[in-house]
Amino acid sequence: MARSVLVTGGNRGIGLAVARRLAAGGDRVAVTFRSGRPPAGLFGVRCDVTDGEQVDRAFKEVEAEQGAVEVLVANAGIARDRLLATMSETDFGAVLDTNLVGTFRVARRAVRPMMRARRGRIVLISSVSALLGTAGQANYAASKAGLIGFGRSLARELAPRDITVNVIAAGLVDTDMTSSLTEARIEAITASVPLGRMGTAEEIAAAVDFLAGPGAGYITGAVMAVDGGLGMGH
Question: Is this structure's pTM higher than 0.85?
Answer without folding.
Answer: yes
